[in-house]
Amino acid sequence: RRPKNFPPGPPVLPILGNILHLNLQNPLEDLEKLRKSYGDVYSLFLGPKPNVVINGVKAMKEAMVIKAAEFAGQPQDTFLQDVFSEKGVILADYSTSWREHRRFALMTLRNFVLQGRSCHRYMHRCSCSGKQLIDSVNGVLFSCAMLCHKLVCVVSFTGKTLCPQVMFHNVAFNIICQVLFGTRYEYDDEFITTIIQCVTEITKITNGPWAMLYDTRSSELVLRLLNEHKKTRVPGEPRDFLDCYLDEMEKKAEDSSFSEDKLIFTALDLLFAGTDTTSNTLLTAFLYLMNHPHIQEQCQQEIDRVLEGKDQACFDDRHQMPYIQAVIHESQRIANTVPLSVFHSTTKDSELMGYSIPKGTMIIQNLSSVLNEEGQWKYPHEFNPENFLNDQGEFVKPDAFMPFSTGPRMCLGEGLARMELFLIMVTLLRKFKFIWPEDAGEPDYTPVFGGTVTPKPYPMKVQHRL
Ligand code: HEM
Fold it and tell me: Which helix (H) or strand (E) holds 422?
């Protein structure tokens, strides 16, 4: 039974609860129908206890921003919490340890990636020509250059049509590996292929990335790299996230929340959360750009104009590229990559939109309902960069743009993800034209639902521009 003044919801069946109200292969349409019947805040029984689903900008802001501390908990009575006594950031309850680790991860990402304070020099010698090709201190830029090099090889040596899935997963995985472990893997490396397969399988389980984060194959990887780091590190001269964490452990008192176990789980969180999300967004962006060639051309005109005479793009160039910014944000809106966010829970008895929600209730944020909410967007149901442009052609970001969620638990990789999306898209669109192959039939935009949403696999034809 629903508690007193609890949000309304569909009638509950014994044992099954409301499970029959949802198509578990893709519940998003059913969740939208329930919103029409029961309003922006409603309840669902997915087990013996009722959960609350939050929809639309207004309710989302009241819960996640205005009443942030009350809605930032993590369900503590799930199977997962029982299995894993230690957690990284994602599954950690709203606690001092979560706060310390989140702050530390944000600061390290900022220093290493966004401000480019990396001690690494990344170099690549082409296996075909033997020439030293790429040399960079910024891991994200290095990965962009590697991706371009890979495409040049594919375009020159094969039939010019490729399946971009593996390519985009590799680039996102390598970027986060560089930040965490100061290492990267070749595109055909057997190890990277296995781990990426594991990441993508896991994220197809509903709410999966968060449900199966700590797969043993990946934990073994982190443990091996941690042991190697311990042998080669110079204290006070961190090369990457692992070194920074080890430095921090030495600085802190013995009873601090920093420990080697915690380090492994935190690194796994970043590895998983940072791979499939960015790559699926890129896959969606290129699917739409190939099938909207006029939008792709307009991006290329802006890139050519702003980068004229420059070797490569840098993140600051985004301020001169309102159209590209609009296209990237629109791709994120349409991609709807993490539609149900990470499940939260209430940290105390709370009120939301006039309803009472007891402490410990599981909260499902339906981000999808915000990203295509009517009244918030000029064109809520179509791919149109105008959603992010004003009448003067300037880039504007509406309040309803929440693919990273909002509030104190919002994605901590947002800065890195935005840098990756910008640099990868600008670098690729500058060099190549992406074409939907003539024999590929009509594009199928239907997404495959999971903890992260993916476009169905598709082919891509690539041509040199310059
Ligand atoms: C386009 C790419 C990305 C999208 C759409 C995305 C989206 C999200 C969303 C919706 C959440 C849940 C926030 C909440 O609980 O309210 C989240 C959490 C998180 N994301 Fe991302 N993410 C992306 C990229 C990344 C990257 C690159 C990293 C790693 C560097 C990352 C690391 C995390 C972590 C650690 C959390 C948990 C934060 C916490 O609980 O305090 N994400 N992300």
Answer: helix 414-431
Residue 67 and residue 85 in contact, taking contact as beta carbons nearer than 8 Å: no
Q: What are residue 345's DSSP bridge partners?
A: 73, 362
Nearest Cα residue to atom 20 of ligand 1: 411
- Structure confidence by residue, pLDDT tens digits, 407-417: 999 999 999 89
What are the Cα distances from residue 356, in Å, to 4, 5, 96, 346?
A: 7, 5, 27, 11
CATH among 1.10.630.10, 3.40.50.1240, 3.90.105.10, 2.40.30.70 for 104-336+374-464? 1.10.630.10
Q: Which of 269, 270, 277 is the best mutation target for the ligand 1 pocket, counting ligand atoms within 8 Å of the beta carbon and taking the most?
A: 277
Residues in the annotated binding site for heme = 411
Specify the residue with its C-alpha closest to ligand 1, atom 22. Answer: 411
68-98 pLDDT, tens digit each: 999 999 887 665 555 555 678 888 889 999 9
How far away, in angstroms, is 192 Cα from ligand 1 center? Answer: 22
Interface ipTM above 0.95: yes
pLDDT digits (tens, 9 = 90+) for 349-398: 999 999 999 999 999 999 999 999 999 999 999 999 999 999 999 999 99
The Cα–Cα gap between 304 and 37 comes to 49
